[in-house]
Design goal:
Layout: H1 3-17, E1 20-27, H2 31-41, H3 46-54, H4 60-79, E2 88-97, E3 101-106, E4 112-117, E5 120-128, H5 129-132
Antiparallel strand pairs: 1-5, 2-5, 3-4
Helix pairs in contact: 3-4
């Protein structure tokens, strides 16, 4: 690795140490369904978002609730303090498409229809509310 790439990689590592996030890969749900739930909690206070996800009817909310709990735990681990009720908020949330399982379903007259079973990757960032309002 050259010096330029090494310096860029070190800068990325240092920047990631100041971010608090959790990532969930290969969730067996389509990205479109997951984005519907992600859009609801984007920018919301963290514990309020947890309660919204807990009582949501969408199946994607179950995995997002676990992921948000993990991001809060990561914030607590890095800061060595407990998160309080109005302290954290969901700063960013990304839903990207992952691998797609391609299957064939039998169709009339010897044809086969393609079935695409989609999956997604979710990344959620939490941050302290007071840091960004200064």
């Amino acid at each position: 690795m050259g010096k330029r790439k090494y310096n860029a990689a070190e800068a990325r590592k240092a920047e990631m140490k100041s971010l608090y996030f959790a990532k969930l890969n290969n969730v067996p749900s389509s990205p479109r369904k997951m984005r519907l739930v992600a859009d609801i909690i984007r920018g919301m206070e963290a514990y309020r978002a947890l309660s919204v996800l807990k009582y949501s009817n969408k199946s994607a909310s179950i995995s997002l609730e676990k992921l948000l709990r993990s991001a809060i735990a990561n914030w607590e681990q890095k800061n060595e303090t407990k998160a309080e009720s109005g302290d954290l908020y969901v700063s960013k949330i990304y839903v990207d498409s992952a691998k797609m399982l391609k299957r064939l379903r039998p169709a009339p007259q010897g044809r086969g229809y393609r079935i695409r079973k989609r999956s997604n990757h979710v990344t959620i960032f939490v941050d302290r509310l007071n840091d960004n309002q200064n």
